[in-house]
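--- STAGE predict ---
source: upstream dedup step, 1 unique chain passed
mode: sequence only
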Amino acid sequence: MIRFLKNGISHRIVHLWLVMIILIFSGTVVFASFRLTDTFLDITAAARQNSELQKAAHELMNASDYLTGQVMIFCLQASILIPRT
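--- STAGE serialize ---
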């Protein structure tokens, strides 16, 4: 330990530690970017599916309104054509 303090820290050791730290940080950044890309693609797919489901729900509501109107017309015409006894 005393010899270490007398001679100082080798530039080679400092350089190796810095390279290892940079590799760890770089690996973390690359890993995080892949994870974020995957999450972004999942969110994009979910948003697209949500849009399609909303469109289908509106079409279903329109079809239901149309059928309700047709049933009302049928009931009115049937009550006019078929006399009550």
